Amino acid sequence: GENVEQHPSTLSVQEGDSAVIKCTYSDSASNYFPWYKQELGKGPQLIIDIRSNVGEKKDQRIAVTLNKTAKHFSLHITETQPEDSAVYFCAASNPLSGNTGKLIFGQGTTLQVKP
Amino acid sequence: EPEVTQTPSHQVTQMGQEVILRCVPISNHLYFYWYRQILGQKVEFLVSFYNNEISEKSEIFDDQFSVERPDGSNFTLKIRSTKLEDSAMYFCASSPRWPRRDTQYFGPGTRLTVL
């Protein structure tokens, strides 16, 4: 069945360093890959997304790369700040799956940025 | 900025009781979803809803679950006879029409505790 694997489960970096979170997906028909940030007590907040027709997308300190051949995509956060500390989820969507937009989520990565 | 809202934030119920979780999606969105997250686990898809009917449901979404859009603004999830294993965070999400139809915005969640 559809599956998304996410690594690492926890990541601790020093403020100013970069953080990279990686995901792999099983359904080769997936073509939409969002990343969500979840702070304590809040719902997932969309921070960036990428579609399969591009290989990379950047928004200020956040970038996402996609390798469709290898079926993996990554989140890169540069110049990390303490407020980046949160749980990050990757997800994938297959538009052919009844066209419902169902998201398949990874397990989540707890990012801690130490001041 | 428009947000998805959910009520209540926390619901405690006895096993076997019925609960209704409420959501107000973003006003011009057309597609609605429920997901759940058991503590420490992945966010899991439950159901998608469009044009007043279910588009897709997961194996989790059995006969004990139902969804409804009773008016132009609310979207509800009903669990008829709660079980201990229904304890989880329940997230509502909504997405707009094409071409951003796959971009889902999540609410803050309802924590359901079944005793």
Which terms summarize this structure?
heterodimer, A: 115 residues, mainly beta, six-stranded mixed sheet, five-stranded antiparallel sheet, globular, B: 115 residues, seven-stranded mixed sheet, four-stranded antiparallel sheet, 11 strands, 0% helix
Describe it:
The complex is a heterodimer of chains A (115) and B (115). Helix content of chain A is 0%, strand content 55%. The N and C termini of chain A lie far apart (41 Å). In chain A, strand 7 and strand 8 (72-77) form a beta hairpin. Chain A has strands at 4-7, 10-14, 19-25, 32-38, 45-51, 56-59, 62-67, 72-77, 86-93, 103-105, 109-114. Chain A is an all-beta fold. Chain A is globular. Chain B is an all-beta fold. Chain B has no helices and 11 strands. In chain B, 36% of the residues are buried. At the A-B interface, strand 4, strand 5, strand 9 and strand 10 of A face strand 4, strand 5 and strand 10 of B.
